[in-house]
Every structure is written in structure tokens, then in C-alpha cells.
Amino acid sequence: MCHDNRDYLSGPKYVGNVSLDGKTAIITGANSGLGKELTRQLAKRENIRVDFLVNNAGVMDYQRKVSVDGIEQHLAINYLGHFLLTNLLISRPGTEPIGKIVNVLCRQKIKKIDFEDLNCDKSPYDGRVAYSQSKYALFLFTKELAKKVQAMELPTVVCGVFPGIVNTSLPRNLVASNNFVFRIMYKPFLWLFMKSPYQGVMPILRVLLEETPSGTIY
Ligand SMILES: NC(=O)c1ccc[n+]([C@@H]2O[C@H](COP(=O)([O-])OP(=O)(O)OC[C@H]3O[C@@H](n4cnc5c(N)ncnc54)[C@H](OP(=O)(O)O)[C@@H]3O)[C@@H](O)[C@H]2O)c1
């Protein structure tokens, strides 16, 4: 019954059988959670040649940490890394354009960028705000990138997708996740309403493998 409930809540599955013969996919953050499951699903259909870029790597942490360049980690990992990788890949001279770029987004409540405090070091640190801000930046980037590739007359399709709330190790650095009471009392309850990684990658697979208009967020 629990499985049926989670299955029902997780939304439609990807049921197509698109052949990935001769295609290659680049997926950031593929050693756990959604990235790992997505790689598994694509590998079933794959015969390698890169046509897809999935900007999936992500971090969620309550503590302020910085990259080696001194950039706040949510901004660095969730947004800037993908911004740089994508721009480097789409402007490689003499190479085939990427077929589709999919950015893995989050339905965050905060929909603004604090340009006065991009590095989150001026006001008291709140990891949820830093996470939301970085994912909102990725959302805005998705929209702008779609316009940019169109202006560059590239055939690349750019989309964003919300995977929903998925039972992965993403919140492992949040205080609640390491709290004994939370783990014993609430986590089993939450589990009922969370998608499994398999269910979580279905919307990503659908956006990746079905025909979708560029600039669309799913
Ligand atoms: N789970 C959800 O409910 C949910 C909801 C909305 C959106 N998302 C988004 O989905 C994406 C995948 O998250 P997930 O839920 O699958 O979490 P996850 O299991 O923690 O996977 C995150 C992946 O990102 C990688 N990563 C983290 N920092 C990195 C870095 N500096 N460089 C390269 N890779 C790095 C991780 O590698 P390591 O394990 O080596 O750190 C891991 O493979 C994230 O962008 C997240 O924001 C998740």
C-alpha cells in the first residue's frame, strides 16, 4: 500500500523507448541520489555519444562553507559550477552542439537574488536561504540560456525540471537529519510522501527524452 501511495504521488513515469544509440550524456553529481538513478536509467538505453547535459549536482548544508576560491558553497556548487561548465561546453569551437541541457531545479520559496550579499557573508548565515538563492539563480540561468542558444542559432534545447521531494542524501548536512528524535519519529512518516530516486528521476527522464520546447520549466 505504501508503495502504491508513493507511486501515485510521484506523477507520470517516462514510458517511451527512445533509443540512445550513439549518444552521450554528461550528468553532474552522479554518484548518489537522483544523478546516480538517472545514470542507471540512461545507461539502460544507451550506446554512447554526448548529446545531453544534466546539471544535477547539488548540496544543501546548514553551515557556511566556501569553495577553494572563497565562494559560498551553495552558490559555487549549485549554480556557478553549472554556469561555467555549460558555457564552456556550448562555446567549444568545431564541435557538435549539445542536443539538450536540463537543469535540475527546486521549488524554493525564496525567489530573489540578494545582489548585496551574494556570498552570504554580510548577514547571519541561513543555509536554507543560500540553497534557495542558488537554485533560483539556476532557474533564471535556464531561462537566459534558452535565449542565448537561440541567439547563437544553436539547435540546443534548454529546460528546467522540478523533481519533487525525493528521498536522497541531499539533506544529510541539515541539523534535523542528524537529530535522533527527527530520525525516529518523523522520517518514517515523511517517507510515505517522498519519492524514491527512481520516481524522482522520472520527470527528468521525460524532459530529457521527450520533445520539449526550449526555455520551458517542468
Ligand atoms: N532530493 C530532493 O528532494 C530534491 C528536490 C529538488 C531538487 N533537488 C536537486 O536534485 C539534485 C540532486 O540532488 P539529490 O537529491 O540526488 O542529492 P544527493 O544524493 O546528495 O546527490 C547530490 C550529488 O551532487 C554531488 N555533488 C555535491 N557537491 C559536489 C561538487 N562540489 N562537485 C561535484 N559534485 C558534487 C554529490 O556528490 P558527493 O556525494 O560526492 O558529494 C552527489 O552525487 C540537486 O541539484 C538538488 O538540489 C533534489
Descriptive notes:
By secondary structure, this protein is of the alpha/beta class. It has one domain: NAD(P)-binding Rossmann-like Domain (Rossmann fold, 3-Layer(aba) Sandwich), CATH 3.40.50. 41% of the residues lie in helices and 12% in strands. The chain is built from six helices and seven strands. It has helices at 2-9, 33-45, 73-90, 127-151, 180-191, 197-209, and strands at residues 20-21, 24-27, 46-47, 50-55, 100-104, 157-161, 216-217. The strands form two sheets. A five-stranded parallel beta sheet has the order 2-4-5-6-7, with helices on both faces. Strands 1-3 form a two-stranded parallel ribbon. Helix 2 (33-45) crosses helix 6 and helix 3 runs parallel beside helix 4 (127-151). The longest helix has 25 residues, at 127-151. The two termini are 28 Å apart. The model has no long low-confidence stretch (mean pLDDT 87). NADP nicotinamide-adenine-dinucleotide phosphate (NAP) is lined by residues 28-35, 56-59, 77, 104, 106, 163, 165-166, 168-170.
